[in-house]
Every structure is written in structure tokens, then in C-alpha cells.
Amino acid sequence: MNTLTHQLDLSAGTLSAIVPGDILSTTADTLRGALFDILESAPIQAAKWNILKLDLTKARMVDSVGLNLIVSIVRAVKARDGTVEVTIRSANIQRTFSFTRLDKQVNVIKVEAD
């Protein structure tokens, strides 16, 4: 798995994180550590942002462990009165979010495949 990247845009009040691939049981622990290191870092905690933009356009699959990770991220962001916006490309992920009703907890933006 490549490196998770993030960017803070104070003028837009957003924190963006680009997930480098699928969120599966084999990658979720590493990704969890990286995401929560970002969310819990002093500069991010002190910054005034209220939207986490989670870019999953490079992912084709999210398994149950990955869903658990996303739910924990949503809870952490909601604890600071923020919202989560997820950008996806995969129809599989869209179906998974719909089936699990996660699409009711986050704002899902579906982009077309290249």
C-alpha cells in the first residue's frame, strides 16, 4: 500500500485525505494508524476545519474491517462537530455503502471511471 496523503485547507475548512488503495483487513490497521495519527496531531486538532474529505477513488473494495475503520473515522469527526465527505469511483463501494446504510452517515460523491 502506498502512503496516505493529506492536506489541510483552512480557507475552505477542510481536511482532505487520499487513501492509496483498497481498505481491507490486510491494510486497515496501517491505514487506521496513519489516519488517526493525522486526526490526533496537534496542528490538525488546533486547526479550524469541519469537513473531512476522504478520497477513496483509488479503492475498488472495502471489506467489513474497512467499513469499521470508516465508521470510527466518522465518529471521530462527528465528535468535533464535523462531517465526512467520501469520494468514490467504484460501484462495488457504492453498493456496500448503500447496503450498510453508511451512505446515510457520510456525504458520498460518486465520480465516473476514467
Summary of the model, kept short:
The protein has helices at 28-39, 42-46, 64-79, 91-99, and strands spanning 5-9, 14-18, 51-56, 83-88, 107-110. It is α/β, with parallel strands linked by helices. The longest helix is centred in the middle third of the chain and has 16 residues, at 64-79.
Describe the protein in words:
There is one protein chain. This protein has 114 residues and is of the alpha/beta class. The protein has four helices and five strands, in the order ββααβαβαβ. 37% of the residues lie in helices and 23% in strands. Helix 4 (91-99) links the parallel strand 4 and strand 5. Helix 1 packs parallel to helix 3 (64-79). The model has no long low-confidence stretch (mean pLDDT 95).
Topology:
Blueprint: E1 5-9, E2 14-18, H1 28-39, H2 42-46, E3 51-56, H3 64-79, E4 83-88, H4 91-99, E5 107-110
Parallel strand pairs: 2-3, 3-4, 4-5
Antiparallel strand pairs: 1-2
Helix pairs in contact: 1-3
Key traits:
five-stranded mixed beta sheet, 114 residues, 37% helix, alpha/beta, single chain
Strand-residue proportion: 15-25%
What is the number of helical segments per DSSP (H or I, 4+ residues)? 4
Q: Which structural category fits the helices and strands?
A: alpha/beta
Q: Uncertain spans, ≥5 residues at pLDDT below 50?
A: none
Helical residue percent band? 25-40%
Overall form:
globular
Please identify the oligomeric state.
Answer: single chain
Strand arrangement across the biggest beta sheet: 1-2-3-4-5
String of helices and strands: EEHHEHEHE
For the CA atoms, what is the radius of gyration?
13 Å
Taking the sheet with the most strands, its summary is: 5 strands, mixed
Could you tell me the number of beta strands? 5
- What is the mean pLDDT? 95
N- to C-terminal distance: 21 Å
